[in-house]
Write a structure and sequence with these properties.
heterodimer, A: 132 residues, alpha/beta, Rossmann fold, five-stranded parallel β-sheet, two-stranded parallel sheet, 7 strands, 37% helix, B: 58 residues, mainly alpha, 2 helices, elongated
């Protein structure tokens, strides 16, 4: 039996973080949510996760690029989210998946499924038994 | 799979969160998700109504 996919979400806007974390969770993923880059590095042993979803601009002195570099080195799939047009060229050439803010949740979940397949993650989403 | 009520609740949560921010990027994102949650709720309700209609026509 495959383990449940674990997602690390790094987003500094509290309102976005709140909704996004729950929306990923309800799709059956085990999601840990943090608000800053340093928090992600301190709290997360990246080997515990399958995919990193990170905003690019983060408070706390460490941006999404730096967090993603560490995560990718540990074998995680990476999804960037950004609303900064100045970053779009770099994102397109990053080799990682990315979403332009604002984005639909369905778009994020589709991207997540694609990234999990790309990294051949040995995990699956697990929805709560008897839900709906 | 969550039911329509769950999605309606999330749409309401987005509306409440919108009152706590004026940042344009956050507002745009929450407005999009509010619409998306309402759409998902409506889809589920339509599907459920369709099932009820089919059953009542049996």
């Amino acid at each position: 039996m495959r383990k449940q996919c674990r997602i690390l979400l790094v987003e500094d806007e509290e309102q976005i973080r709140t909704v996004l974390g729950e929306a990923i969770d309800i799709e059956g993923y085990d999601v840990a949510v943090v608000g800053t880059g340093p928090e992600a590095l301190v709290r997360a042993d990246f080997t515990d996760f399958d995919v990193l979803i990170t905003d690019l601009s983060l408070r706390g002195g460490l941006d999404g690029w730096a967090v993603a570099e560490r995560a990718a080195a540990s074998g995680l799939g990476v999804i960037f989210i950004s609303g900064d047009p100045a970053q779009y060229d770099r994102l397109m050439n990053s080799g990682h998946a990315w979403l332009k803010k604002p984005f639909r949740l369905a778009e994020l979940i589709s991207t997540l499924q694609i990234v999990l397949r790309q990294i051949d993650a040995q995990c699956e989403p697990k929805r709560a038994a008897g839900g709906g | 799979m969550p039911d329509a009520e769950w999605f309606r609740g999330k749409a309401q949560q987005c509306r409440e969160l919108l009152r706590s921010t004026t940042a344009p990027a956050v507002v745009a994102q929450l407005q999009m998700w509010e619409r998306e949650f309402e759409e998902r709720a409506a889809e589920i309700e339509l599907r459920e109504r369709g099932v009820v209609t089919l059953r009542s026509g049996e």
